Amino acid sequence: MEYGILLSGGADVDFMIHGIFQYSFFGHKVWITTTHVCILIVMMILVGFAIAANRCIAKAAQVPGGFQNVVELIVEKLDGMVDTSMGKAAPKFYNYIGTVFIFILVSNISGLLGLRPPTADYGVTLPLALITFTMIHFNKWKYQRPKTIWEDACSPLPPWLPIWIPINLISWFAVPVSLSLRLFANVLSGTIMTALVYGLLKWFATIWPAALHIYLDLFSGAIQTYVFCMLTMTYISSEIGDGTRR
Amino acid sequence: MDFNENFILGCSAIGAGLAVIAGIGPGVGQGIAAGHAASAVGRNPGAQSEIRTMMLLGQAVAETTGLYGLLIAFLLLFVKPLLP
């Protein structure tokens, strides 16, 4: 008997990742899962939007109207967000932060379209956080002297006594873990809550779960997207400092 | 000693219930943040939008510790790592 299903209420409750297609990759069993399918749908939506935006901007009118207004508004808002938190180094990061913001936002609110949000899979959020981690340390080596980095690494103690380095290493590696787990756990808890409501209450869950969707998918998803991008920018700009190359 | 499956699953359920007690901390923290934001708006109503942004950001970061507890509960209930 499946007690795990029983604990979650019934056989109709379903929020797990399902394997769709199995293939062999150098002797390993690898699955194509629902996450892959959902992420492809999200990517197709974004690519379609990007092509439409490109066509529109290529023959942009002096007085923008309709769709061009929307595209310009999105780009201006995203660039403004990067500007306020990164200062002088902002123009280099417009592209990355904007892309990640739009991708995570559409992924989070794709629960409204009946998909299982791709960000509710730890295999999606961990690479995003690892990119952040790589960028933090790349920019650290780009903008700071090795001497300063060494002093930072043994920071509470003087630089000739490097016994504090393991603790600082843990705090470096805690950054991507906490970034990815925060996003993952938020979206996963939203997915599980809505699945439980729909699975347990059956016909009783007719119209009012819309409020639940507004909070768990739209509000929580948007806030977590903002937090992810904000923390990425804060970490990177704290490594850049005043922006002078060493 | 030899425990049967039902015993392990029951203990996992109790552990999941204990793990979500972690939600107390973020609840108190978010309440404090919201209270201070309210008093800040009372003192300086012009800065309302910045205060709201900062409050939401801080609350979303403070939420993380509670979510770790929630994750442990989900792991115990659905992944069942303690079963042999």
Question: Would you summarize the structure shown here?
Answer:
Chain A is mainly α and 246 residues long. In chain A, 67% of the residues lie in helices and 5% in strands. Chain A has a two-stranded antiparallel ribbon with strand order 1-2.
Indicate the overall shape of chain B: rod-shaped
Number of strands of chain A: 2
What Rg of chain A do the Cα atoms give?
A: 22 Å
Q: Write down the Rg of chain B.
A: 19 Å
Essential attributes:
heterodimer; A: 246 residues; mainly alpha; 67% helix; B: 84 residues; F1FO ATP Synthase
Description:
- The complex is a heterodimer of chains A (246) and B (84).
- Chain A is mainly alpha-helical and 246 residues long.
- Chain A has one domain.
- Helices cover 67% and strands 5% of the residues of chain A.
- Chain A has helices spanning 3-7, 34-58, 67-86, 94-109, 122-143, 146-153, 165-201, 209-240; strands at 19-25, 28-33.
- Chain B is mainly α.
- Chain B has a single domain (5-78), classed as F1FO ATP Synthase (Up-down Bundle).
- Chain B has helices at residues 5-19, 24-43, 48-79.
- Chain B starts with a helix and ends in a 5-residue tail after the last helix.
- Chain A binds chain B through residues 3-4, 7-8, 16, 178, 181-182, 185-186, 188-189, 192, 223-224, 226-227, 230-231, and chain B through 5-6, 9, 13, 56-57, 60-61, 63-64, 67-68, 70-71, 74, 77-78, 80.
